[in-house]
Amino acid sequence: MVLDIFLIILSISATVLCIYLIFTLKKLVIQMNELQKDIKNLVDNTIPVLKNINDVTLKANRIVSSAEDYWEGIERSIENVRSKFSKLTNITRYDGADLPARNFIQNIKAISRGISAFWQEFRK
């Protein structure tokens, strides 16, 4: 008789445990489905952002290469101006104090050297 009571208690507790396990598994399945939906939404939202980042990177590369081309053109122009000024200053040299153009030419040479040094440092 005591054995029968223990068997009944054991059967009831096993039944309750199975019911609890079923409810717990059902909650777990629901949470997994929600997690799967959230991951799908995340992936769907992330792909366009990555494509936009890729487009922005390509456009930035194009802008940088165009800017580099413009800088090279400016440097060539400065070099041409510098060479023309150096040709002007190398024509003849006078040591006389009565030539005011000499100071002007020296100032132009100093300015061209300064611009050249600036561009060289700016490129670094």
Outline the structure in words.
The chain has 124 residues and is mostly helical. The protein has two helices and no strands. The longest helix has 88 residues, at 2-89. It is rod-shaped and about 135 Å long. The model has no long low-confidence stretch (mean pLDDT 84).
Describe the structure using short key phrases.
124 residues, 0% strand, mainly alpha
List the helices and strands and how they pair.
Layout lengths: L1 H88 L10 H24 L1
Helix pairs in contact: 1-2
Uncertain regions: pLDDT < 50 for 5+ in a row? none
On the 0 to 100 scale, the average pLDDT is 84
Radius of gyration: 42 Å
Strand tally is 0
The helix fraction, in percent, is over 70%
Major sheet characteristics: none
First and last CA, distance: 97 Å
Number of separate helices: 2
Strand fraction band? under 5%
Secondary-structure element order, N to C? HH
Brief account:
The protein is 90% helix and 0% strand.
